[in-house]
Specification:
By secondary structure, this protein is α/β, with parallel strands linked by helices. Helices cover 25% and strands 19% of the residues. It has four helices and five strands.
Length: 145
């Protein structure tokens, strides 16, 4: 979870910084990701606001889990891996998690648990037999000066 938290600091989102770390069955890091705009796009041309229409960041941002999956050199290497993520995955990321064969999701926070998209995500992950676990380890504080 520490690596997921550290990677979240790379996000330029002023409101919600999310990080993800995928490890294999030996707990070796396979990939990491954070929420950000797609590569090769000048972020100055897009909004980080929660606005409406084309000014909403939600239309453009790639989520941390999605980026961690895409950053993997070999997609088949994700089968039976564990995803550590700082925020419970949305329904779109849940689909990707299921498709690549990740077996467990460990999340730090679920602040959107009452939203329909999060409920759909949880339902899909459970139906796919993916273990869901709230992080219960040591409190992690990352400070960069």
């Amino acid at each position: 979870m520490g690596i997921a938290l550290l990677s979240s600091l790379r996000s330029k989102d002023p409101n919600t910084k999310v990080g993800a770390c995928i490890v294999d069955e030996d707990n070796k890091v396979v990939s990491i990701g954070y929420n950000g705009m797609p590569r090769h796009i000048d972020e100055e041309n897009l909004s980080w606001n929660k606005g409406e229409g084309l000014d909403s960041k939600y239309l453009y941002v790639c989520h941390a889990e999605f980026n961690a999956i895409l950053n993997t050199r070999n997609g088949s290497a994700l089968k039976n891996c564990i995803l550590y993520v700082t925020l419970f995955p949305c329904n779109e990321c849940a689909k990707a998690i299921i498709q690549v064969g990740i077996k467990e999701v460990v999340y730090l926070d679920n602040k959107y648990e009452n939203q329909i998209t999060t409920q759909a995500s949880k339902k899909m992950l459970e139906l796919a037999g993916i273990k869901l676990r709230k992080y219960q380890g040591k409190d992690i504080k990352i400070e960069i000066k």
